[in-house]
């Protein structure tokens, strides 16, 4: 089961301890100098490390072009505010929570960036919750998605819309210009640690002081046993919607396209890149809603 979302237990060097890897000779020297834990405590630490969930190799994952082409054909499915994310547990609740939190933390909203906007559902929900128009920046890899999102957003009375057909990592977005940035079901397409850090650093640089960043996404767990439990529960959820075939279809998409990280990893990274406050709003199985803001 641990292979199902891009991860597996990491092999642990028998000589590895809290201070890092060491040879048997170094371990004995540390023991004699009083710098090594007892065997029992060390074994417990090594066992915990063996349970740690680790990302797999990303070389076989879909490219951004592959992902864009798939979403080009999914416009209709993602154009429903309530059911467009049926494969996501608690999607309507998470969307409600991040938009309400955005308004609570950033009560004066002039400009919003929706990353991986799809058909615009999260911007539409924020417009509904905020009750007033704002300048809307929509970013997505898919041209057809962007076209649909812009049409739907303009119908709400938002006249100022900028569409970006681009990858966040490459887009020449204006620094310190956004009051709110939304990222729903998009960050799981990031790959290695450097990719994640660069993306979070960029988001931080795009926000004005007092601006906030809100995420809903697929996540993995920190340890293999809990990951397997949550993944099994998610499989049951998918079968309840569309049977075993639907379950396998979604799992295949995830295996091919996605590389999610634990919510704890992302909260820590948000702090590390400079966000002053972070909050977990909701988590159910393999999905979470959370956010951060800067002073």
Automatic annotation (TrEMBL):
Please tell me which top-level EC class this enzyme sits in. transferase
Give EC number(s), comma-separated: 2.1.1.-
Annotated Methyltransferase domain residues: 112-211
Could you provide one GO biological process annotation from this protein's UniProt record? methylation
Q: Which organism is it from?
A: Stieleria neptunia
Instruction: Indicate whether ATP-binding appears among the record's keywords.
Output: no
Q: Would you tell me the protein name for this molecule?
A: tRNA (Cmo5U34)-methyltransferase
Q: Where is the composition biased (Basic and acidic residues)?
A: 24-43
Please indicate if the UniProt record lists Methyltransferase as a keyword: yes
- Region called Disordered, residue ranges: 1-43
Superkingdom in the source lineage:
Bacteria
Q: Name one GO molecular function term.
A: methyltransferase activity
| Pfam families in the record | Methyltransf_25
Q: Keyword set for this entry?
A: Methyltransferase, Transferase
């Amino acid at each position: 089961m641990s292979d199902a979302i891009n991860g597996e237990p990491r092999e642990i060097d028998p000589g590895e301890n809290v201070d890092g890897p060491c040879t048997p000779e170094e371990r004995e020297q540390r023991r004699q100098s009083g710098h090594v834990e007892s065997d029992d405590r060390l074994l417990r630490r090594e066992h915990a490390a063996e349970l740690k969930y680790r990302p797999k190799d990303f070389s076989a994952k879909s490219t951004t072009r592959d992902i864009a082409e798939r979403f080009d054909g999914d416009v209709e499915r993602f154009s429903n505010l309530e059911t467009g994310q049926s494969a996501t547990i608690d999607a309507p609740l998470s969307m409600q929570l991040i938009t309400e939190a955005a308004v609570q933390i950033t009560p004066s909203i002039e400009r919003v960036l929706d990353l991986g906007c799809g058909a615009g559902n999260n911007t539409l929900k924020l417009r509904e919750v905020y009750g007033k128009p704002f300048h809307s920046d929509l970013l997505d890899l898919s041209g057809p998605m962007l076209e649909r999102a812009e049409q739907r957003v303009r119908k709400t009375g938002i006249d100022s819309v900028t569409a970006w057909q681009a990858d966040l990592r490459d887009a020449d977005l204006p620094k310190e210009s956004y009051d709110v940035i939304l990222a729903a079901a998009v960050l799981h397409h990031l790959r290695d640690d450097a990719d994640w850090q660069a993306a979070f650093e960029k988001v931080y640089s795009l926000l004005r002081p007092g601006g906030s960043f809100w995420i809903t996404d697929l996540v993995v767990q920190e340890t293999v046993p809990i990951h397997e439990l949550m993944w099994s529960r998610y499989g049951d959820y998918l079968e309840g919607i569309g049977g075993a075939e639907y379950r396998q279809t979604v799992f295949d998409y995830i295996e091919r396209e996605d590389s999610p990280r634990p919510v704890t990893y992302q909260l820590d990274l948000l702090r590390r890149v400079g966000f002053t406050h972070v909050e977990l709003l909701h988590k159910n199985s393999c999905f979470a809603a959370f956010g951060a803001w800067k002073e």
